[in-house]
Amino acid sequence: MSPNTSQRKSQIVLSFRPSLIQSFADPPNDGTEVDEMTEMMFRQTLWSVELSVDPSQMYERLPNELWMAIFDRLSLPRDLLHCLLTCKRFYSIAWPCLHRTVFITTSAAGALRRTLDSLSNLPENTPLRHVAKGMVVGHLQGYLKLKRLMDPYYGIESIIQKSFVESLTNLTFVGATLPSTIVPALAKLANLQRLYLYSSYIHYKVDQDTDSEDESEGVGYIEEAKSHLPVLRQLKEFRLWRHDWYGITSETDYKYTLKELLHVCKRMHALCIDWNTVVAPTLNRAVQRSTLPWRYLCLRMPPLDMQIINFRMSGEPLLQLLPWLDHLEELRIVGNCFGLEHMDQELGVVRVSQLRTYSGPFELFATFAEVPALERINFTFTKDPRPHHNTLGKIYTVFSRLLLPRLEALSFYVDKWDGELLSFLVSKFPKLKELRIAYADGVVTEDELSLLASVYLVSLPQLRVFHLYHLAQPTDMKLSAPTQGGRRRRHNMSQQENTRHLLHAYLQGKLSIAVVEPKRRKSLPDTSDVVLNLWSQYTPLLTEGRLTRTGVWTRGRQVDGEWTSWRMRPVSPLEDDSFVYNDDLERWMEFESLR
Questions:
Q1: Which of 99, 319, 411, 462 has its CA 20 to 30 A from that of 179?
Q2: For residue 205, what are the contacts with CB-CB under 8 A and spacing of at least 6?
Q3: Which regions form coiled coils (predicted)?
Q4: Strand partners, 300
Q5: CA-CA distance, 509 to 513, in Å (whole number)?
């Protein structure tokens, strides 16, 4: 191996080594399982490396299986391209990783049709049939007229059945209008684990028998229809999201899509879906007729004005759904839940006994009666015209009523800072490992920050993360959109332009550059080290602290067991305000899971 090749190999691996170490050290959030042997090999080879060893010689001894596991964790294709051009060994290992996902996207209907035909007639000996695990099907023109868009997608079921029926595990449709023949093809994917539909639906020919003005009659035939189709037993996650709440979508097509796919995906463990007038009664009927093994439920609530106009899109129908989900372990509510303000917070009405993680508005959490298994709580609020914060009285009332013996992580916000709040939380939840508090009004002096550790934090021996900072109003934030050709993305787009720009930005790798620019506040550069060092004396396991919105301080252990000094790291867009949900930013980050 030439010196230049060895140097390039070491530079490539060292460039993404920190992120890989973090991904192997922390369990994945998407439900994927990490092979124990691969993790053990990774820890033994990388964590025990001496810094004085030549990097080229060090990484040369790694086996091919470990290299493939490392390359599989690279999210961007350009990183894999660098690995392909390094040496022949890297080329043979990284090539299958580069073709894990097949992207079928084009701006011309004819070219899309030819692509589908070529993929449906792949030779038996081609490695792509066995290497490809995921497929993303989309159209750069977004929502075109039905006559122009329907014809190209009629070949997608032949690709699934002929070429990738045994290997396909992830399938994604972006802005696609699919034929009804896709449902039997999906039901034959025995190894399919994730099915995502972004602004996509299945076209259904309207019959006179099913055309009814009563929506409850139109969604009541989930169980009996298409009962002959097999159920996907390996499916873990199903998403049915659209990017424009106000976009016009055929209600009959949406009902048909929901009816067909809920039957095929009834064994799924995770469901991510929009909450609307069709989904609310459909899910309520489904959970009451049969026991569904849902462990993760993510509901994206409509805008506040739509909830006010239509009661069936508000949060009250959600109270009828949750008690039927006996296996639910994680609940995420995106947006506000209108109509729950009148609920009596001193007496809960919803029992979710198996829930372990909750992320959503405080108003819904206040209706819970018994949550003994809850381990993580994160309260959020949205950029609505009428934003409001939780008062201290509501926090005291709800947490005094609930018994949470297993609570380990708590993130919330209050309208005004109160020094007695920490005393209440420490006495109530002594097993906390992560505590994040943001306040909208008030000032915490340097002396108060110093006294927090000796008075309160000393009672939390397992605390690892502690945030206490001022929370700016949602109106103080400005979202920096992806640029295309030097122009900023417009926010008042039509449905076609919106989907086209989103998909085009995703394919060019520009979706991860969304930056939240908070209103600048005065930081604590001079006193931060003093405060954090004092905190770490009383909480020896503390590894992350936050005193302002603009900075997060972290530290770690060295090889000899000693702690490093506190260092400030930049705040990511999603972490900059973890309590604030931004619909535009969330919509862009949805595509990150497809990479």
A1: 99
A2: 180
A3: none
A4: 274, 334
A5: 9
